[in-house]
Design brief:
20% of the residues lie in helices and 46% in strands. The chain is α+β, with helices and mostly antiparallel strands and 266 residues long. Helix 1 links the parallel strand 2 and strand 3.
Length: 266
Amino acid sequence: MHFVKSHGIGNDFVIIEDTEGYDASELARLLCDRHFGVGSDGLLIYEKSPDADFRMRMFNPDGSEAEMCGNGIRCITLYAYKKCPKRSFKVETKIGILDCDVTSTEPFKVRVNMGQPKDIRSHLLQMEGKSFKLTLVSMGNPHAVNFVDDVSVIPLRELGPKIENHPDFPNRTNVEFVQVVDRGHVIVRVWERGAGETLACGSGACAVAVASIVNNYTDNIVEVTLPGGKLNIEWDRDKGIFMEGPAEEVFSGKLDDEYLKFRLRR
C-alpha cells in the first residue's frame, strides 16, 4: 500500500488512495499510531468523485470519521496538484464541494472557501464548579471557542478532553483557547476531537476567526497563530470563510503487506 506523509503547519497526515479492502477506521487507528504505524494526526483518503475533481475522506487517530479538516484539505490538494498541476480544484467532502485555489507553488499555498459558519451561539459551560463562556461555531464540524488572557498557561491536556467529552456535546467537540493580540491577530491552542492536542487545526482557525468577529474582538481578516504556524482567515458574509495556508509533502513510502495483514487480521 503506497502512502504519502504531508503536513499543514505541523498538523500531519497520511494520504492513501486505496484502502485495499481494509476497514478505513481500523486502518486509521494503525497508520496514525506514532509507534506501530506511520504516525499522524489523521488519515486522508483520496477517492474519485463524479461531481468534483476528487473526494476527500478524513479519519482521526481514534478511527472516527471527521466531517471536515481544513489543514487536511490543503495537504490533499497538494497531493492532487502533483498528479495534475492545475491552479483550481473542486473537492468533495462530507460537508459539500469546496473550492481550493493554489495561490503559490514556492512555497505551496492553498486558499480554500470553507463555506459559511453555522449554529453560532454563546454557551455557558458548567464544569467541576467552574464556568466557561464559550462561543460555539460549526464549520461542518463542531467547535467550542474560549477566549482567555494567556493561552500559554492553559492546562489544555486537562481541560481539552473534559470539554470535548462533556455531556453538553453529545457528538463531542473540538476545543479552542484564544488569546486576542489585536484586531487582526489572535493566538490559538487547539484540542481536536478524536486526536487530542495538535499543532494546528484549519477548521478550528476558521471557527476562531468567526468567534472573534462576532464578539467584536477582531475585524473580518484575521491572522491566526497556532503552535505550528500561521493561517490567514477572511470572513466574507456573502461568499464564505476563506482560509489560506501552506502544505508540504514530507515523504512517501510503501506499507508492508504482511504487516498490515497481521495487524488488521485480514
